[in-house]
Each structure stands twice: as C-alpha cells, then as structure tokens.
Amino acid sequence: MLLKTSLRSFFAHKGRMMLSLMAIVLSVAFVSGTLVFSNTATGTFDKLFATTASDISVQPQQDKVTKDSGEPGKPATLPIGTVQKIAALPGVKSAVGEVFSPDATLVNPATNKQVGPTSGAPTITGNWVDTPRKSLDISSGHLPQGSHDIVLDADTAKKAGLGLGSGLRVITDSGSYDFAISGIATFKTTNPGAALAFVDTATAQRMLLGTTAYTSVETYGDGSRSNEQLKAAALGALGSGFQVKTGEEQKADNAKGVGSFLDFMKYAMLGFAGISLLVGGFLIINTFSMLVAQRTREIGLLRAIGGSRSQVNRSVLVEALILGVLGSTLGLGAGLGLAMLLIQLMKAVGMNLTGASLEIGWSVPVAAYAVGIVITVLAAWIPARRAGRISPMAALRDHGTPAEARANRIRAVVGLVLTLGGGALLLAAAGADKAATGGAYLGYGVVLSLIGFVVLGPLLATTVVRLLGAALPKLFGPSGRLAQRNAMRNPRRTGATAAALMIGLALVTGASVFTSSMVSSTSSQIDKSVGADYIVTAGRSLLTPAMVTAAKSTAGLAHLTEQKVVPAILTTPDGATTENAVSAVSETFTADFRLPVKTGSADAVTNGALSVDEAFATKHHLAVGDQVTIEYAHGRKQSLQVGVVTATGNSLFDGHFYAAVDTVAKAVPATELPGDVAVFGKAADGSDKAKVLTALQDSLQAYPQLTVKDQAGYKEIIQSQVNTLLYMIYGLLGLAIVVAVLGVVNTLALSVVERTREIGLLRAIGLSRRQLRRMIRLESVVIAVFGALLGTGLGLAWGITAQRVLSGQGLAILTIPTGTIVVILLASALVGLLAALLPAFRAGRMNVLAAIATD
C-alpha cells in the first residue's frame, strides 16, 4: 500500500515536481559532467605519455638551487658522447639524442604576431628525430633537410594560418632565426595544447644551446632487460652528473604536471556544483512542504484508517526517492553532454581532447546517484517528518498543518545563536593580528553566519517583507496589498525560497567586494611606490640581451632599470635555510621605486647590501647589519649584510629580496646570470611621455611577445586579469542562481494551486485577471528582493572581513562596488518578475466557478 500510495501521489503531482526535477538534473549534470571530463582528460594524457615515453631517459643532474643546471635562456645539456655510451649498454636497442627548449618564441614574420599559446601550455622548439614512439607524424611536406627548414604542428599552423612554404621566425636568447615551413606534423593521439616546432639537430644545437650537445638521451630497450635494469646500467656507465628516469617515472612526472591543472578545474567546478546542490535542497524542501500541506486531508484519512506516522513519513520519502532516482538518471545523461561541451571548450584553447572515447568509469554513476538521491531524500525528510506528526483529527478538521509556535521559538534561538556566533567570528577575523588566524576565523564565520541566516529566514521574512511591501498598497491598490500579505502568509516557505537566492548573491557580492578592493589596493600601491613611467615584460619568458639593448636605444628615455630573478638559498644567523630568489636590480632601481622602508636605508640596496621584507626579518630575528649567506647555482656563495627591512603590506615588495646586479655578479659570473624578468623605463625631463612610450614600442616592435605599457596600461592589465577571474566566478555561480530562480517559479506555481479556491473567490468579488497577475508578480518580486537583500548583506560582511584580514598583506583599501550591488538588486527584482510570468499566466486563465468548487 505504501509504494502504491507514493506512486499515485507522485504521478498525480508530476507537473508540480517538474521544477524540482530540473534542479536535481542541473546539479547532478554538473557533478557527473565534471567527473567525466576529468576522467577523459586524464585518460587521454595517460595514453599520450604511455605511448611516447622512452624506456629510460637520461637527463642532466638537477642543481639543488635552480632545479636545473643550464645557462640563462638555455636548457641544461649532456655531452655529445652520452649517446654512444648508452647505445653500447647491453639490452639497448637504440639511443637518440634530443634537443628541446621551452624558452624560444615563434613569430609569423608576415604579420609580426606571436605563434602558439601565450599562457597555459608551452611553446617547445627542438630537433626532429626518428624514435620508435613518436607523438607526431609528418602529414604534409617533408622533414627538415637544411638549416632553413622547420616543421610545425598542424594545430598551431591552422590557428596561425600558416602552411607549407610560410615563413616562421624563432627568437631565442642567442638571436632571431628565419625559417620556411617544410612540413606539417600531426599528433597521433592528442595535442596537449602546446605549439611544437622542429628543425634539424645541428640547427637546434646552434640556435637553442649554442654548443654541440643534447638536452636528453631517449633510450629504447630490446626487451632483454627491464627498465630498472637499464636505469642501473646507465647510471653505472655514466657516473655522477646525470639522472635517469624509467618510462614509468617519466609518465608519473608528466601526469603530475597535467594533473595539478585538471584537479584545480575539477575541484573548483565540484565546489560550485555543491553550492547549486545546497540551493536545490531549499527548492526540494519547499516543493514537498507545499505538497504535504495540500495533501493534509488525504494524510488524515490515511491515519484514520490505520496508517502509522512512520508509514506516512516513508510515503513522502518514497516520493523523494523516485524523484531523486529520476533526476539522477536524467542528470547523468545531461552530464555526458556537459562533458562534451567542456571538451569542445578545451579544443578552443588548443587541448584537442576527443569526445569519441569518453571515460565514464564506475565512480561517475555512483557519484551521480549518491548526490541526487541523498540530497533529495535529505531535503524531503523535514516535510516528511512534519507530515507524520499531523494527528488524524487535526488533519481532517483543518486543511493545513498546525501552527508550531514552540518550533518557531526554538528556530529563533538557534538562528540568533548561529548568527551572533558567525558575526563574532567575522569580527575576530577582522581584528586578527595574523592573516592565517584571520582566515580561519573568516571561514568558520562564513559558515555559521550563512546557516544562521538560513535558520532565521522565516522569522526575518515577516518583518522585512512587511517593510518591503509597505508601499505596494499605495502604488498598486488591492493587488499590492494582497501580494504583501501573500508573501508574509507562510514565512517558512518565503524564507526557504529567498535563502536559495541569498546564497548565490552573497557569494557574488562577497567576490565583488574582494576583487574591487584588490584592484584599488594594487593601483594605489603602484601610484605610491612606482616612479618608473614604463614597464616591459616578456610574459612567461625572459628578456634577451638584444631586447634590452633595443629598449635602451629609445630616444627620450632617461634610463632603464633591469630586474633579474636569481634562484638562491638563504641561510640566516639562526641557522635556518630558505629557498627563495634574489631580485638583482640596476643602480637606478631606487630612483624608479620607492621602497616602504621599515628600518635602514633604501640606498643600501645599490651599495652592496641586501633588502629583506619585514615578515622574513621578524621570523628569523634579523636586523639591519646582520649577515645573510646566499648560495646560488653551481655552489656559488656570498655573504651580504642586511641594509634595509621593507614594511609589509605592499604586494609589490612583500616576499622580495633585493640586491644590486653588480653585487650579485661578484659571486655569479655575468654569463650565468638569467635574463631580465622586466625592465622599467623613465622618460627624460621635459619629454612627452606619450611619444616616448610610442618610441619604446617601436624600438621593440620586432619582439611581439613583449608587453610594453605605461603605468595606466599596466593597471588596466591587472584590472582585466581580476575581471577574468570574477567573470568566471559569476558564470559558475550562475548555475546556483538558475536553480534558485526555478525555486521561485516552483513556489509560486504550487502556491497558485494551493490557493485555487481563494483565487476563485477573489475573482468572484471583482478582482480582474490583470490585477490577479499583478498580485502574483509583485509577490514574486518581493520574495526575490528579500533574498537579494539578505544575500547582499551577508556578501558585504564576508567581503569586508576578507579585506580586513588581508589588509596587512597588501589589500589595504576597501572598495564597495556600489554599481554592482545596485545592479544585483535590480536584477533580483527582474528575476522575480520573470519567475512569476508562467504562474501568473496560469492563475489568470482559471475558470472562476471551477476554482471556487475546488476542494
């Protein structure tokens, strides 16, 4: 009887269940789609690494400081004789010397535009060699046959509009080299998004290494020895200065690099899916609460003929189970579609995954059904429990659930305790001395304040909705008065509906406050600390000596300050060692930058001393005059005196250690110093800064990979980077907001059904269809704005607290994005208006007599 009753009730209300079903489908699709995409991407890369890895790879021994042993702009190398030594080992079938560098830049000389990705995947240039496990095949043209031939991968060629015979320029630390494309190579499995270019071995060695050597020797066995045996034999034959990795170790290293990026995507998307699931939970609670309320008399009859509380409870839960199974099944199917969409998005950025071999795995359906069913059943448990507590006589006498004054008092106490506790934690976070402590308080405060507002929502609804709707009777007459009262009629329902919107909008508002403060603080720091007029950067690569020379030749430029980042290990007087880098700067550095001096003198940096930041000095008990030992690559060491301690709170200098280039050069030969990460220009007195900027850009026109900006342009870059992050957050939170809108629609639709007789009576006494539709629209707008106000208040509290927590880390200026907040509130009113269109339309079409006769 239980299952039969549940099925009959479910199918009798299938239309009312539809929006709850959509919420489950969307949330489950996001979870399953993310998992399928992650599995497919990981599996694709695993296949690529498995089919291309050599049995053993011989590479130069890494330096403990730099994690490399190459010269600046050039990769670490192996002697040319290494190939013969490895090839002579027992069990080796072939050994091939390879030359590859990720530091070269490809340029289309016809357009002077960079070829290949500018972020994410690298651009790799090397020699073409035949190996048993090649990742690419020549699909058109031929291999490099001379010093002017180059082969380009098909995906990069297609994006750049290049073909056979097209020119291609390669810019390296040693100069610029022009080639003609002689061949196009196509990946056998997938292109991980990188741009690959190949020349002959002699040209690669001259262009990329400046010497006759290899960057690795890839070795393939004949099957008579295991990879571990080949590795041991290679290490024995070569001695020190080499490292050898088996195929399994190569695959693990490659997978680790790709996995970190994919894991970030996966967990970020699952986090937002969790938010949408939480929002969907409120929708489901509302749906079943209203269905239970509408079936009160039916539940009373069931109890009267012998049905127990547990049977009524289970009847509602079985309906939820059916809804959860159906939603999870449809969500799983929609998730496959979402995975295909994500794969297409990855193709747009160069990662050519294929949807023909989606890797689902057992974990995907398990996660989909677990998420969909558990969330649905848990959300339905509260209405089910409430249904089971209705006594038979009360249900038969009153068409509705009994008032729960005691429950409301408990709710008020619990809600106030949680909210006050969350508020106290937010205040503690804002006043914390350490960012780590403040961050912990902030996290707990966010959770408690969110739960507290959710619990208090129904109690707040009565007061806030009364205030929000106070002007409605005057503006819209009877429709406005009825809308206000309807929104206040069931505070629990209004609170749950508004909570769904509140969560999404709180996160949006908090993110907006945080990012706006970040942009304002960074701009302020640039204004206060940077005296240079121009900045030149090379993105992921370094500026070559030729680039710096070209920049220095610009007319109207007073001077150019260079900044190099030199990897190092610092040993302080307390015996602690810290892996960090020393920023080696020109003598004009203190003229272009105003260091936030805590103690000491900024001029000490260019007079042979070291600059450390306040946090580092405090941690290691350093003061001006103390000695710090610095170890650079190849065991080169020097001891420098601390000349200045910079105050914390400026992200441009926090965590940086400055010394003059001439000072570092006393320990590290100039040939071993890396290229510049950036150069800063100062216009000569009396010169037109705009014209000098144009001249500087013209001087560096041959290097399209460089970014040349003045201070205003540099601020715009920071703004665009922050905005990109913010828009991504908005997009992902959009799913939660869509689910919340579905909740508003569902609440109104079920409310219209619940009030069918009432609507009929209102129509009978003279309320027009237009007034009726207006009443429902206004009710929806009030609920949406109520949720938006709660969300905005919470978001402001979270965002302001986050800014205060990080105020000592450079986020010194609080900026409230007033325009964004106004847009959010107006958009919420619009959302409420749109959500009410269908319920209002259906209510307006009701037959008056049929509505009055409804039981």
From TrEMBL:
Domain MacB-like periplasmic core: 18-211, 494-697
Keywords: Cell membrane, Membrane, Transmembrane, Transmembrane helix
Highest taxon listed in the record's lineage: Bacteria
Topology of this chain in the membrane: Multi-pass membrane protein
Predominant place of localization: membrane
Regions crossing the membrane: 267-293, 316-346, 366-384, 412-432, 444-473, 494-514, 725-753, 778-800, 812-838
Residues covered by the ABC3 transporter permease C-terminal domain: 272-392, 732-847
Pfam families: FtsX, MacB_PCD
Subcellular location: Cell membrane
Family (UniProt): Belongs to the ABC-4 integral membrane protein family.
PANTHER family in UniProt: ABC TRANSPORTER PERMEASE YTRF, MEMBRANE COMPONENT OF TRANSPORTER-RELATED
Name the UniProt record assigns to this protein: FtsX-like permease family protein
